[in-house]
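Holo model, guanosine-5'-monophosphate. Inputs:
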Amino acid sequence: MSNETIFSKIIRREIPADIVYQDERVTAFRDIHPQAPTHILIIPNKIIPSVNDITPEDEGVLGHLFVVAQIIAAQEGIAENGYRLMVNCGRHGHQEVFHLHLHLLGGRDLGPMLAR
Ligand code: 5GP
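Output:
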């Protein structure tokens, strides 16, 4: 059974997306429903459905997601003021797309992390 989601088609450029960065290991593109002035999804090109599916061999690519997040934050001009990196997992985390992704949010004061 394929674990492919819409994100696999974005990686292969089979459907349109505003891709801001791509290399052999990761792809980053603007979220279709942005929650902040900058809202970019950074994903491994390899399918890892969720954090629950990570294996030790994924450590390299997962570290690379953060390096790319830093590069994109600088490109977007939000590095100095700061930003938020977020990963949702499973039902309680309200994960919608089961291809692991790092949300990069910034461009305004994002407020406290969770409603109190
Ligand atoms: P999750 O809740 O799984 O952490 O977040 C999934 C994110 O993917 C959502 O913010 C949603 O707006 C975004 N998204 C879902 N489908 C598409 C799509 O086809 N294109 C783009 N650019 N973003 C998408």
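The domain at 6-106 is CATH 3.30.428.10 (HIT family, subunit A). The radius of gyration is 14 Å.
Archived with the compound record.
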